[in-house]
Amino acid sequence: MKETIARKVRITDTTLRDAHQSLWATRMRTDDILKIAEKIDAAGYYSLECWGGATFDVCMRFLRENPWERLRQLKKVCKKTPLQMLLRGQNLLGYKHYPDDIVERFVALACENGMDIFRVFDALNDPRNLEKAIASVKKYGGHAQGTICYTTSPVHTVEKYVSLARELRSMGVDSLCIKDMAGILTPGAARELVGALVKAMPDMPIQVHSHMTSGMAAAMYLAAVEAGAGCVDCAISTLSSFSSQPPAESMVSILESVGFDCSLDRSLLAEINAYFKALKAKREPASASRVEAVDAGVLVHAIPGGMISNLRSQLAQQDALDRLDEVLEELPKTRADLGYPPLVTPTSQIVGVQSVLNVLSGKRYSMVTDETRRYAAGYYGRTPAPIEPKLRKKLCGSLKPIDCRPADLLKPGLVAAADELPPNTIKAEEDILSYALFPEVALGYFKWRNADPAKRDPIPADVEEASRAAQPSGHSQASQASQPAPASQASGPAPSGTPVPAPLNGTFYRSDAPGKPQMAADGATVKAGDAVCVVEAMKLFNPIKAPAGGKITFLVEHGKPVAKGQTLAVVG
């Protein structure tokens, strides 16, 4: 009898990135990682996802660590296993498009510092937003993994996904990833999609990424592998399941029981899991114990688990947590209005916050964030389905729609970023890139790093304390949201006139981005309908318009928290 050779199935470990981002608020520290890195490197994984996503921001903002140094140190230890990162295409690690020169230099330095595999995705599956990042990865010797963000809608079909895969192949990607961020890819749909991709491009390696939010991911992985996928994403069991990936130990047993070969060292997996089980007490947020193990609701609303927690946090900021069910009912409608975007960063935030505003304002689209306007106008890319023309016109307002690749409108930014940095701030070129991506976060970290160690603010010892001690500033995105406190108004009697009230709890700004001039000077004459200031709430900017024409007098200082209904200015 002829002996059959088991087909090899590779496993990428997500413990060092997506798993602790999903379960531990991304609070794993470099020392935590280095203490176990050698054993993880020896376990037999295909790759180690350890960078990208929220890790870069959180390293600087909360942990007071240099993310570049984390990469360098991990590379020194991991001699056998390639390192992998998640890259948001033209968005890199942020929430907006960056100029091409910043994209290319970031990728170049990531490769130079030890990154091997780049999983490159775009929230809209717009190939134009992937071109520069993929070309840069190839130019500097990295492995470019093109990504299909999986979702369901009337316009998302197997044929469309195969067409996207063909475009990615034409860009020179080395492999494909099906990214199922909500955990809604069923075993049957996975079998069909992977089968179609294998048929269309039989020599293209296919990897599958999912989350256990709905409880289906392990079964889906088996179906995908049987259909021809060669690699799946898993996490060590202590950091698996819930909104994370399937457990590596269980997935190995499942796959090997039907004849596949995963080649992972089970004894090392047990040692690695014991380490993280002990670490869990220090790094897992106390709130995690209140999370349900399975959220079957995701099969109806298709909202990723991390997005649900964001919605809860955002509603809590507005003292409206009791309206979560209304928001969950509104969100699919808003998503349909906006052309059925996949719900992944940054579109998940744009759609989620706009849904919250549609509910809280009492009238849909009476309040529209700057990000929603830019999305509708094409500044994030091409929407999967067209937005109804009348609605698009309303959403865009005075912003002129575009049809070109959004990054074509951006001027080179690297030199400008370097020029903006205060003298004696940076220690290496990587610092310039950190600033270009997260200006205020990076400056805060540089200031802390350059201070006398005896005078530095202490780094909080645990997750809950860190969340309280390092709340995000309004001009940058963050993984945690802050609860605004009532702000004091200017001293003395308030001038008479038509009040400009805050529509939400949030943070008050006179400009709509760091370094930009004030939208309206104090004492200037404004017209009714002019955008005069911004209230940042739920990590997005909400332009505030003058309710009448006349001379404007501001009553709140730039950067101060404000409460819903508080008078920000008067016009008279």
Helix share bin = 25-40%
**Amino- and carboxy-terminal Cα gap:** 94 Å
DSSP summary, beta strand count: 16
Indicate the low-confidence ranges by residue numbers.
Answer: 463-491
Please tell me how large the radius of gyration is. Answer: 24 Å
Task: Write up what this structure looks like.
There is one protein chain. This protein has 572 residues and is an alpha/beta fold. The protein contains 21 helices and 16 strands. It has helices at residues 15-23, 30-42, 55-61, 67-77, 100-112, 131-139, 158-170, 187-200, 217-227, 248-257, 266-283, 298-301, 305-317, 324-337, 347-360, 370-376, 389-396, 414-420, 429-437, 439-450, 463-469; strands at 10-13, 47-52, 83-87, 117-120, 143-149, 175-180, 206-210, 231-234, 498-501, 506-509, 525-526, 531-537, 540-545, 550-554, 561-562, 567-571. The strands form three sheets. Strands 1-2-3-4-5-6-7-8 form an eight-stranded parallel β-barrel, surrounded by six helices. Strands 9-16-14-11 form a four-stranded antiparallel β-sheet, with no helix packed on it. Helix 7 links the parallel strand 5 (143-149) and strand 6. The longest helix has 18 residues, at 266-283. It is globular, with a radius of gyration of 24 Å. It starts with 9 loop residues before the first strand and ends with a strand. Mean pLDDT is 89; it is low at 463-491.
